Amino acid sequence: MIVMNSSSAGTEKHKVNYRKIILLIFLILIAGLSFIYYMNNQKRDTKNLSEAAFAMGCFWGAEETFRQVKGVEFTEVGYMGGRPENPSYEQVCGGDTGHAETVHIRFDPTVISYRELLDVFWNNHIPTTPNRQGPDVGSQYRSVIFYYNEGQKRLAEESKKELEKSGRFRDPIVTEIVPAPDFYRAEEYHQLYLEKGNK
Length: 199
What we know:
The chain has helices at 6-48, 59-67, 89-93, 114-123, 150-166, and strands spanning 50-56, 72-80, 100-107, 132-133, 136-137, 143-147, 176-179, 184-185. The protein is an alpha+beta fold and 199 residues long. It has two domains: 7-48; 49-190, 2-Layer Sandwich (Peptide Methionine Sulfoxide Reductase, Chain A), CATH 3.30.1060.10. α4 crosses α5. The radius of gyration is 28 Å and the shape is elongated. The protein starts with 5 loop residues before the first helix and ends in a 14-residue tail after the last strand.
């Protein structure tokens, strides 16, 4: 039978405690480094995305259209181009605020170009009907390209001119091309409206 004196037992106990402390510090370091790596990737992903905004009638269908496009990473619907700030859906539908129902998107320019997004825009609504898309009538349903920089402005104007010269539409194109003002996100029930199964 081995008898361990109290001093030896105390030393062993301290060794065990030191091991636990070292292990805990190691786990905290691993967790911290993992968090930093995750946050850096998140910032990098956001930084690499560009934004665009289009008004092309009811924003439910517009959002669903762009959601299907490869390279579009994020969509949300809301209101742009009017007053007051943060309007409600009811205010915008009243037709007096000047806002247009808008889909705001973030896209990966290495996957899809802004010019290709313009093609999606032109091909999925009628740009010759002022303040109207199908049965939806009012200034909130007007056709607008909101540009975020001079490059987007140039591409939007070029694509509009090309479409006008193509003779595809008999009537004049009434789409506005204007600097992007503040975007006001619409009420939550409007987000991904068609994706939720609403008609």
